[in-house]
Amino acid sequence: MPAETTTGADVLAAVPHEPGAPKPDPIVVVDGMRKTFGGLVAVDVDHLEIQRGVITALIGPNGAGKTTFFNLLTGFDRPDTGHAVFDGKEIDGYRPYQLAGLGMVRTFQLTKSLTKLSVIENMKLGAKGQLGERFLPSLVTPLWRRQEREIEERAMELLRRFQLDHMRDEYAGTLSGGQRKLLEMARALMVEPKLIMLDEPMAGVNPALTQSLLEHVKRLPTEEGATVVFVEHDMDVVRDISDWVVVMAEGQIIAEGPHSSIGQNQAVIDAYLGAHHDAPLDADQEEEWLREDRLELGDVPPRREEP
Amino acid sequence: MTGIDWGFILNQTLARSLDLNAAVYALAAVGLNVHFGYAGLLNFGQVGFVAVGAYGMGLAITLWQTGPFVAVLMGIGFAVVFALLLGIPTLRLRADYLAIVTIAAAEIVRLLARSTALRDVTRGAEGLNEFIGPFRELNPFNPSLLYGIGPFQYRGSQFFAIVIGWVVTLITLLLVWQLMRSPWGRVVKAIREDEDAARALGKNAYWYKLQALILGGVIGGLAGMVLAIGNATIQPDFFVAPLTFFFWLVLILGGVGRVWSPVVGSVIFWALITFMRNLGRALVTEGLIPTSIMDTSQIDQIQFWIVGIALALLMVFRPQGIFGSREEMALDAR
Amino acid sequence: MSGWRPVADRRRVAQWISVVALVVTAFVTFAPLQAIADGEAVATRLRVKDPETGERNPVPDVRIVVTTPDGEVLGEGTTDAEGVFETPVPAAGTYLVELDPTTLPEGVSLRNPDRVVVEVEVLEGQTGRAIFALVAGDAVQVGEGGGITLRRVAQLTVEGLKLGLFLGMAAIGLSLIFGTTGLVNFSHGEMVTWGMLMAYFFNFYGLAGAFGFMAGWPAPFGAGMNLIFAAVIATAIGAATGYAFDRWIFAPLRRMGASLIAQMVVTIGMSIVIRYMFLFAFRGTPRFFKDYTAQSGLQLGLVEITPKDLITGVLSILILVGVGLFLQMTQLGKAMRAVSDNRDLAESSGIDVQRVIRFVWTAGGALAALGGVFIGLSEQVSWNIGFRILLLIFAGVVLGGLGTAYGALVGSLLVGVGIQVSTLFVPTELKNVGALVVLILALVIRPQGILGRAERIG
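The joint structure predicted for all components is written out below.
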């Protein structure tokens, strides 16, 4: 099933299918980014450009350094050397909150819903530039009441779109695994991101929900004007929604191109066969996924009646 | 059981649960609640903030002859500086580093205050006394009369401090309540739940944690000032390390992360402790517990056992406090 | 723990303890504070309240001089083990009693430093009492001054190394427990005290001396046993305690899924309970072991060191080297390092993590206990030493790198030497402040510690 939805493919039609290929309008440019852990090279990216307004998938066998690369880009980890530009601005040494302020938002492989905050509070947290988040103004409700109301309206709109509006006042901890993924994505959109980075958005999601989640991701560039980068293991997902695929192995970028060109790429085949494709999950992760599947089926926990 | 004066024990129990110490413990626990209950910071040295606040106020008057209000501001300033000193190095790191540094720093504050090297400033183990003068002048109550809350009577000099203590507690509770329903509180709670998520959404977690540490520390400092005014003295050996965990027990008894819990916890704590202490004394003096097992000075030691055991058990089995709901805990599967 | 002191036998034990006091202070007379019949006298009784225990402890060995207002000396001497000094005076009248503050023991000072002379009215046929208000506060340093000489630097370095080695024994356990479980054990200091107190107990009472009917039995049952055997037993008990803590407290907590924060608060609660049980059973006064207490120093080059310190120092080096070899060479040791390094990876590669953790607790308990014995021998035996050195242990562990065994050792040695040598520049009573400064600076400059790897912290 080829990607038919976006114009992204057209924009990238002229881009050569090779690692580090230049793009017509890159939102992110990375140069010579390197990170080692105790002598092991986790990431070693020479050059990478990510095209604005399209969906880019970042794939690679286990241990390829995808998540570390994500962390480096989003400021959660510092590269040993390297240089990155986001939306025309040098972002070396920026901290995550500063990057979010510039419009780069990420989600996490293991969802980070704030369990003891309600769904709506989770959403409102995402909004930028809140006066009430500053210490002294927060003491005077009238200063932030109007802004709070506006934020709440925007949050409800997004919740409705993600079909979570009926959960508005529930603790986020009572949501199922898939609902948490939805909430995290909706919350990230509250930041009004230019670039949204999804770390394994489909991991641990009940297959029944996968399709709706995919639809949401697919619509991000057109409806929110956001560029999407995502890490994913599931090749069906990659095929379904990505305009461009970047393949990493052993910390390096070994191939780039639309998904159709990736399948025949010898370097990619070697990387996947050399490593174990579809490697078994480690025990912890498997357990986590099973647990979330159970949650999905409404096993636990008890939910309150809707108001 | 003829010799035990139950009436006296009960009266004491109820009177103590409202007096100066109860207010001071409640206040210190409000500070801890901001730290641990809302921001998730592990402060194992709250007694250090209490001491620093008290000394800041006392030294302002004894060293620099300031007025009482400036002295209170000095106490607050000391607590802020102490918070910055402990927070700046640790708040970027795992939560346990703050715990380690605070428990150590609180003990160091006590050692410094009682050291001979600083005797000219802090008066060593004897402590500060002269600071009380300006506060006596402010006292609207007649120090030699008895004032009552219900059936309980307090001397005018004490009553002033008790009133200040509860009024300050009430004000800080309102402050905390307002903060925690504001977007500021939302960010702080989000950081407690998951710091990385908050950072990814553009919140400067470090700065918010520092603010929370300062706020809770200043509230602890206020507790120290109320204590100093009530006792008319600031002695270093009052601020021993286990006191922090009395505050923790107060907080956990009331329920972590609720606005009113420190007050509830403090009243319960003092009622229980006073009851047990008086009962124990009565049992020993009446000969029902032979002195070969324990004497009256050892009864106070036993209260530490009870505090330690209660702290551990409550933390594991009922961190939501004795009145908390189970539901919230079910979310805590961390 | 209070089982040490069965009900019926408490008094006898108290007498035993008095005997210890006798050995230690070398002169004891149970002089009651009473007037000598038909005569006038002046007396004073020096006692100081321990701020932490609330007990009033006698202050012995303080020089007292009784004079007439004209300055004629009528009697002088030192207070006895009960803190009492008494001297007859010729007639009723006013006398001056002077206390020599330089003879006050460390940690005790006059509440009012200017009140060294007290006026006493003696009535006919009665004893006049002089009251000196004493407080537990560190005494002013006397005679420790002097410049920085090579000899002093060398001496302090050796003492620092000794302290560092003892701290290291406790720190390794703390660090490995953290490495394998993520838990900071705030009751680790109490494990140190536990070893010290158990050795003290066996040293004085033998295996069963506290139980009345066995008291008369020969060593090692009734009478005390040599400290060496007592230390071995104490170490074994320390190991058993570490095992028990994990088996019956922390393993169940982990199984329940209690958060690390909850577990940390549990260790705090335990530390308070245990510490005050020690106080209950042992009382607040510091004491000494029966054996090897008073030793004169050997001159080794520039430094003077007592034989016991030399032996315990060498022993701890041997033990620490043994621990290092164990970690490097044996299967279990490697497993411990692997779990510390990356728990998930270790678990998935087939290491029985729970067994490794159990072993770490056991070994940590043993090392802490033995460290406690050494500290007790080198300094004194007291109920709260564990809490007092906890800061030093933390400073060492954080400086070296939380979670690493070697880091804990290196950090402890640095902290030990650092704070001893720092007494060249700062008053001894403030030397522990230096440890806090080290702790904070380490966190600012290199939070992962000297030997720790950079963690993924943003």
